[in-house]
Structures are given as C-alpha cells and as structure tokens.
Amino acid sequence: MTANHTDDLQLLARIKVGESRAFDLLFMKYYPNLLHFSRSLLPYPSDEAEDVVLEVFQQFWRNRETINIHSSLSSFLYTAAKNRVNDYRRKLKPNTSLENIPGDIMASEEGPDHTLNYKEIAENLERLIKLLPERMQLIFRMNREDELSYQEIADLLDISINSVKTQMYRAIKFLKETYRFDNSIA
Amino acid sequence: MKEQELYLLITRYLSDQTSEAENAWLADWLAADKSNQQTFEEVKRVWQGHQRISDEESIQALSVLRARIAAGEQRVVPAKSRRLQFYWFAAAASLLVALLAAWYLFPTKSNNSRLSYLTIVTKPGEKKIIRLEDSTRIVLGPGSQLSYPKVFDKDNRTVSVKGQAYFEVSQAPGKPFIVQTSVLSVQVLGTHFNVHADPDQPASTVALLEGSVKIRLEGDRSWLLKPGQEISVDHRTRQAALNPLDSATVLGWQQNVLVFKNEQFGSVAPRIEKMYGVKIIFNNEEAAETRLYAQFKDEPLENVLSAICISGVLTYRQQGDTIYVTMKKSS
C-alpha cells in the first residue's frame, strides 16, 4: 500500500462512522480531478460534469455505511463518475453507479517517507502542469495524484494502455526539461 | 531501454509499483553512469515535488454539495426525527454566519414587555466574551452593542446586535435562536455563527459558511441560505442580492484581520477605525479614492498605515486618535 492509499483507507473508515470532516477532505482531494475527468467524457460545453461529480459524492455519503471497496478509493470514485456519465448519456435515470467496482489495483509495500518540504517546487510544478495539453494533464493527474494504474486509466478513458504510457512519458519529459530550464535561468 | 520506458520505470519505482527485478535493473543502471543519477534525480524531483493544490472552486462545490445533502436528508427524514438532519451539521462542528446591519435603522425590540433586557457595549478596539444563560457563547467585536433578555422567553431566544459578534449557539430543540435587525432577522438552524452590524455600512449582510439559517425580511420575504452564500440587503432600496461569501473578509475581524480587495481607502476606513479605535480624516478626495489591495493579520496600526502609504502616493500623520491621510501632489 502506498501512503496515499493508506490515507484513503483511514478517510474511508472515518466517513463510514459518519464523520463529515473526513468526507470534506475526501471531496477536496478528488473533486478537481474527477471534474476534469467527467468533463473529458461529456460533450463541451456542459454543466453536467459538475452535477455528475456532486452526485457521485452525494451518493457516496448516502451509502457510506454499506460501501465496500475492493480496489482503491480513487479507482472507485472514477468508476462511479464514469458510470454516472454513461447514465447521463443514455438519458436514463441515474441509479446504481456505485455498484460497479473495479478489480484490485497493484498493491505494494509502504512507501518511503516523503515529508520534505516541497511547497515551492510544488507550486512551480503546478504552474508547469497547467501548461500541458488538457488530455495529457488529465492522464498525468490520474496517474500521479490519484495513483490509478495505466490499465485503469486506459479503461476509464477507453484508450490503449500504450497511449496512456506515451502521454505520461511526454508529460514527465516536458516537466523535467522545463523545470530544469526554468531553474537554470533563475 | 528507451527513454519512455525508463522515465515510466522511475516513476513507477517512486510510486512503489516496481518488481524486485525492475528495482535491481534500476540500481545497476544508476551505478553505471553519473549522468543516469542526474536523470533519475530530475525525474524524481518533478514526480515527488508535485503536490495537489486545492482551489476555491472545490470549496464552492463542497458548499453546494453540503446543501444538497442537507436538502436530501430533509426530504427523506420525517418531521418526527428532525434532529437527524442536524447530525451532519453537528459533526461539521460549526455554523458560521456573518451579519452586517445598520444600527441607525435598528430599533430596540422590546415587543415582549415581560422580558427585561441587558445591553453590553464595547469601545472601539475592545472585544468582550459573553456567555448567555443557555450557555451560548458570544464574542462581541469592537465598537459594538448586544442586547439580550436576562431570561429567555420559553419559545424562542431572541437577541439583537449592533456592530460585530461571533456566536456559538447551544442547541435547544424547540427554542430557535433569532438575531434581529430592523431590515432582517436571522433564524439559526445550527450552532455557530458570526454577526456584524455597522452604522457605516450601506447594506446588511448575512454570510453562511456551514449549516443553515433562514433570513426573513419585511413584507414576508424569506430565504433559506445555502452554505457558501452571502445575502446583502441594501438599506435604502431594500433589494436583496445573493453572492458567494469571502470567509477572510467575513470572519477576519476575530483575528484582527483586515482584507482590502481593490477597495477605496474611504470605504474601508470605517473598518480600520473600528478595529483600532481611531478616526481617519482624508485631507483630499484623491486620498479617499485611492484603491487598496492588501491583507493584514494582527498588525499594529502603524504597520497597516505605513504599508498602505509605502506604495508612494499617500502620506499619513497621527495626532492622538486621529489619523490624517494626504495624497502627495505630483510636482
């Protein structure tokens, strides 16, 4: 388990007993990326993406006591959002989007302690990430921030695992080169 | 190994998603060449240096979500178990409301002659903590006034405020807590909130951070405010407008925070006067029209004034409790 997954499991445990603060934290963590993801699946311009994501969280809260997550929390939320987008597209009444649960994602041992203060670097990088093309940015954030595997991203976006890898590579290469360039002139 | 695979291997390694064999390969590769270490460090820096940054949009969306959840629970929960719908708010710990209202329009409500009222007044620059008989806690801000009954009526708890106050209302089922002004009344459906009523403000404002309040205006107009919203009622026209709230501006006074967002010096001067107990006099109109963009937290008055004047065009001079501000004439 990575540190992020451990955090998520703790959040989930607190949400299950009705702690709304934990639910707020979960929302703040995943809302922006889930919104980008939902927007990417819906025709532009659309206000439905906001609704989709809010409904995912609303239903998550409503079903908090019975929710059973076999994969990661992030993968669960993305899948719920995708199902709900599909409901919208079919113009069906949204119903059981939270039932469909993806398989286990790669689990590994506790990661190293990343407690260094990266605030400044983080801000610089965030600025650079925003320069990435939208699709590439989405994939980068799904992988880096929400720790979805290449396969999970490929499934969610209906693209090949190779194009996920290519996009990831280009994103990292861009960030690496640009960050180095920025800092060599500073 | 191609550069693409290499970069992805490094990031997977940093996310603890590599196999033993891959780790071994990576170790060999690192040992092989100094430039490899350099590449590794650069990828590591962009990978680990990145942090998710939450934004205003998420906070706004969260407010909407909370309101929806509250509304949804209200719909499904029968009236008998109304307390359930407060579960969410109780867990959320605080209900925060800010209210700005005009004192000069505010009559002392004594429609219930059985109740004898107490009035507490603070001087400019002074704050007081008051605890009511129902253990509601109130922090009364500078230059403010609070009136409340010595003993609450049996069906409601009604108080009135001039100036600013922060409320932590104790729960009392069947005994709503109400804050009254001449232009509106606020019925609190939760626990904590903040009130600001000021004679120098052109409007009354109620801002809700969490929980639920009902705003009632004369002529039987009423609004149920959603978290993250702010309602302003113009004192002259009595027009009401809904806006997203700004928590730093609304609640900042408690920590002696001043926030000026591209506002004219003349329009923010009353806030400075209240907080520091001074009087500000503008020697020329241009000085009052100067736009300020600044934020101060618990700073002495000297620091606030010199920061405002450091931008170059203004000078100030203090004489006792009076501050004279002048626009420098460009020669």
From TrEMBL, chain A:
Pfam families xref list: Sigma70_r2, Sigma70_r4_2
Annotated SUPFAM superfamilies: Sigma2 domain of RNA polymerase sigma factors, Sigma3 and sigma4 domains of RNA polymerase sigma factors
Any Gene Ontology biological process: DNA-templated transcription initiation
All copies of domain RNA polymerase sigma-70 region, residue ranges: 26-92
Keywords associated with the record: Sigma factor, Transcription, Transcription regulation
RNA polymerase sigma factor 70 region 4 type domain mapped to chain residues: 123-175
Recorded GO MF terms: DNA binding; sigma factor activity
Highest taxon, organism lineage: Bacteria
Cytoplasm keyword on record: no
PANTHER family assigned to the protein according to its UniProt record, in alphabetical order: RNA POLYMERASE ECF-TYPE SIGMA FACTO, RNA POLYMERASE SIGMA-70 FACTOR ECF SUBFAMILY
Protein family according to the UniProt entry: Belongs to the sigma-70 factor family. ECF subfamily.
Protein name, as recorded: RNA polymerase sigma-70 factor, ECF subfamily
From TrEMBL, chain B:
Membrane-spanning residues: 86-106
InterPro entries, A to Z: FecR, FecR_C, Ferrdict_sens_TM
Limits of the FecR protein domain: 119-214
Domain Protein FecR C-terminal: 258-325
GO MF terms, alphabetically ordered: sigma factor antagonist activity
Domain of life: Bacteria
Keywords assigned by UniProt, alphabetized: Membrane, Transmembrane, Transmembrane helix
PANTHER family, alphabetized: PERIPLASMIC SIGNAL SENSOR AND SIGMA FACTOR ACTIVATOR FECR-RELATED (PTHR30273), PROTEIN FECR (PTHR30273:SF2)
UniProt protein name: FecR family protein
Organism: Chitinophaga terrae
The organism's taxonomic lineage, starting at the top: Bacteria, Pseudomonadati, Bacteroidota, Chitinophagia, Chitinophagales
